[in-house]
C-alpha cells in the first residue's frame, strides 16, 4: 500500500518536473528571440539597437546556460514567483489565484448540477430498463454529448439574456451570472455521468449481495439506498474528478464567450497577448491541479475499494 | 477529456470475424442491422448525406465562399442563396460546405493518426510487457490528465496556429483510448492458442503483433473511432472558435460561428446554422458508434434469428 502511494507521488513529482521544464522552454522554442519580445513589451518599440538588447539580455540573466536559467526559474516558481505580467505589470501569482478561484466555482457549479441530475436519472433508468423513461433519458444523453458548448452558449444567451432578459449575458458579478455558463458547461458531462451511472447501477443490481438482500425480503428502495447506491456511485465519482481536472483549465471557450475571468481565459488571453509570465504560471497551475486531483482520486479510490486496494498493493 | 472505454472481449471480435467471412453473410448482416436498429440506419443515412454533400461541394456550392456583396449583408434565405448571406454578404450555404470539408477532414485525419499510433503502442505495450508496458501506461495516465484544449493552447504558443499544430495537438491527446483498448484486447489475444502456436513456430514479436493482434482489434477500434469522432469534431471546433485552428480565408463550422457571434441579436440564424451542422454530424457518428457497439453485444441474438 505505502509503496503504491509512494509510486504515485513519484509519478506526480516527475510529471510536474517534465511539465515545468516544457513550460520554461516555451520562449526558447518559438522563432522569436525572447529578449526582443520582452523589450518590445517593456518599451513598446520595435527599433531597439543591438547594444540595448544585449544589455537587457545580461540584466535578465538570459546569457547564462539554459540549465542554470531553468533551475533559477524553477526555484522562484516553487515559491510562487513567476515574475510580473507584461500587460498589467503586476505579480502574476495574484492573477492566477483569483482566476483559479473563479474556475473552481464555475467547474463545481457545472459538475455539481450535472451530478445532481445524472445520479437520480441514471438510477431510475437502470431500475426501469426498457421503459419510456429509460429511452427518453438515453436519447437525451446521446444528444447532450454531441452538443458543442460554443453553440449552446450563444443560443442560451439569445433565449435567456436577449429575449427573456432573465439572466446577464456575460460577466462575473453575483450568483446569477454563474447560471448560464455553468449550464452550458454541464450538458456534456451530464450525458456521460448519466450513461455511466446507469451502467454501473445495472451492474450493482445484478451483483450477488443485492440479489441476496432483495431475496431476504428487503424492499427495492431499502436495498438500493442501503447497499446499491454507494457502490454504484464510485465510477461516477471517478468520472467527476476527471472532468473536474479537465474543466479547471479546459473551459476556455465558455469563459471567453461569457467573459468569465477564469483560468482558461487567462491562459488564452496570455497567448493572444504574448504575455509569457502569465502563460507559464497559468499552465503550471492548471497542470498541477489536474495531476493533483487525479492522484488524489486514485488514492481515494484505492482506499475505498478493497478489490483495487489488493490489486495495487500487490503491484 | 474523459472517455468511456468500453471493454469488448476478443471472443466477440472473433465472432465478428467469422461472421463477416463472406459477402453473402456481410449483406445479410447489413439487412439485419437495418431491420433491427432503425436508429443506426437513420444515423448512417444522415452521416452519409453529410459526407456526400461535402465531397460534392463544387456541384452544390455554386457561389464562391469568399465572394462578398456588402449591399446584401444579412440577406434572408432565397432561391439564389439557400441559407442567405452573412455579415460580409457571403453565401452561407457555400461557406457551410467549404467549412465542413475542413472540420470533417481535420477530425478524420487526427483520428486516423491517433488510431494508428495508439494501436501500435498498445500492441507493443501488451506484447513486450514489463518496464515498457509500465512506462507506456504511466504516460497514458499522464496524458489523460491534460485537458486537450490546453495541450493545443500550449502548442499554439510554441508553434503558432495552423492545421499542423491542430492535428499534432489533438493526436497527442487522442491516442490514449486506442492504446488502452488495444492493450487490453492484446493481453487476452496473447494468451490464445494460435498465438502460442506462432510463438512455438518461432515467429517474431513483430510478426505476431502485425498478423495476429492488430487484425483482431480492428473492429472494436473502428467502434471506438466512431464513438470518439463526435468529441474530436467538437474539440477541433473549439480551437477554430478561438481563432487558433483554421485560419482565414479558409473557414470551418466553428470559425463561421465565431465570426457570426457579434451579430447574435441581429442575425441569430448565422450562429444557429454552423452549430447545427456540428451537432448533427457529431450526433449521427456517435449513434453509428453506439449502434455498432450494441450489435457486437447482440451477436447471439442475430445468430438465433438466422435459424
What is this structure, in a nutshell?
The complex is a heterodimer of chains A (about 325) and B (about 300). By secondary structure, chain A is mainly alpha-helical.
Secondary-structure map:
The complex is a heterodimer of chains A (315) and B (307).
Chain A: H1 2-29, H2 34-43, H3 50-60, H4 66-78, H5 92-127, H6 132-145, H7 149-163, H8 176-205, H9 208-215, H10 220-250, H11 252-257, H12 263-273, H13 276-304, H14 306-314
Chain B: H1 10-19, H2 23-36, H3 38-55, H4 57-60, H5 92-128, H6 130-144, H7 148-159, H8 163-174, H9 176-190, H10 193-200, H11 205-241, H12 253-260, H13 268-297, H14 299-306
Describe the protein.
The complex is a heterodimer of chains A (315) and B (307). Chain A is an all-alpha fold. Chain A has helices at residues 2-29, 34-43, 50-60, 66-78, 92-127, 132-145, 149-163, 176-205, 208-215, 220-250, 252-257, 263-273, 276-304, 306-314. Chain A has 14 helices and no strands. Chain B starts with 9 loop residues before the first helix and ends with a helix. Chain B has helices at 10-19, 23-36, 38-55, 57-60, 92-128, 130-144, 148-159, 163-174, 176-190, 193-200, 205-241, 253-260, 268-297, 299-306. In chain B, 45% of the residues are buried. The chains are: A mainly alpha (315), B mainly alpha (307). Chains A and B meet through α1, α6, α7, α8 and α10 of A and α6, α7, α11, α12 and α13 of B.
